[in-house]
C-alpha cells in the first residue's frame, strides 16, 4: 500500500484558505474591517516567514467563531466553501488526486489550517482522510485553544505517525506534496517529496536535493 499526502493551502488550493476565511469574515461584516484584516495579514506574513506562533493565531481565528451560534457559523462556512474555496482549487489538483486514486493509493490531506475550515474542503476534494489543527471545544463551544498537537511544521510528523499507528495498513511508500518551507521536516522524511508551486526557500531545497518540482496552477 502507498499513501499520497497533500498539503492544502497553496498546494491543492491556489491560495490560502485560512487567510481567505479571515477576508470572508471581513466581507460579511462579522468582524471589523481594518483591525481584523491588519491582524490577519500580519499572521499570514509570519507564516510565510516561518515564525508563526500557531497558538496565538488559533486564538485569533477562533474568536469570531466564539461569538456566533453553531448554525450561523456552519452556514457561513458552507457559503465560504462554495463562493471562495471552490474557485480556489488549483487547476491541476483534481487530476493529480485522481492519478493517485487510479494507482490504488490512499489519500490524506495534512494541513496546519484548523479542522473547522478544512473538513468541508477535504470533502469537496473527495479526500477521505484529513489531519488538521484541531480546535478545543467545551460544551459545544470553541475555547480558543488547540486540542492536541497542531499539524504545523514538525507537528505534522508526530500527527502523521500517530495516525499511521492507528491504521490497520502498513504503507510501503509515502508521497508528500507541499508548497511551503514550513513542511520541510515532513518532506525530508518521506520517500517521494514533491515541491508544488514552491516558495523560494522550498524551491532552493528541492533543487539542491533533486526533488521533483511541479505546478498545479
From TrEMBL:
GO molecular function: hydrolase activity; metal ion binding
Domain of life: Bacteria
Assigned keywords, A-Z: Hydrolase, Magnesium, Metal-binding
CDD domains in alphabetical order: HAD_PGPPase (cd02612)
Presence of keyword Hydrolase: yes
Protein name: HAD-IB family hydrolase
Organism: Salinispirillum sp. LH 10-3-1
Amino acid at each position: 500500500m502507498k499513501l499520497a499526502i497533500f498539503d492544502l493551502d497553496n498546494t491543492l488550493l491556489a491560495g490560502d484558505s485560512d487567510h481567505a476565511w479571515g477576508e470572508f469574515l471581513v466581507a460579511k461584516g462579522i468582524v471589523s474591517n481594518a483591525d481584523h484584516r491588519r491582524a490577519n495579514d500580519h499572521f499570514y506574513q509570519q507564516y510565510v516567514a516561518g515564525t508563526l506562533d500557531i497558538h496565538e493565531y488559533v486564538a485569533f481565528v477562533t474568536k469570531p467563531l466564539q461569538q456566533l451560534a453553531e448554525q450561523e457559523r456552519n452556514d457561513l462556512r458552507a457559503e465560504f466553501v462554495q463562493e471562495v474555496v471552490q474557485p480556489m482549487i488549483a487547476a491541476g489538483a483534481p487530476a493529480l488526486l485522481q492519478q493517485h486514486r487510479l494507482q490504488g493509493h490512499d489519500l490524506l490531506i495534512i494541513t496546519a489550517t484548523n479542522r473547522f475550515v478544512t473538513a468541508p474542503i477535504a470533502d469537496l476534494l473527495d479526500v477521505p482522510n484529513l489531519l488538521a489543527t484541531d480546535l478545543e471545544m467545551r460544551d459545544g463551544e470553541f475555547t480558543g485553544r488547540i486540542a492536541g498537537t497542531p499539524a504545523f511544521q514538525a507537528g505534522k510528523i508526530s500527527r502523521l505517525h500517530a495516525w499511521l499507528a492507528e491504521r490497520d495498513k502498513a504503507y510501503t511508500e509515502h508521497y508528500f506534496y507541499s508548497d511551503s518551507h514550513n513542511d520541510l521536516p515532513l518532506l525530508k522524511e518521506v520517500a517521494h517529496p514533491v515541491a508544488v508551486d514552491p516558495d523560494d526557500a522550498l524551491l532552493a531545497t528541492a533543487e539542491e536535493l533533486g526533488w521533483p518540482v511541479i505546478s498545479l496552477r
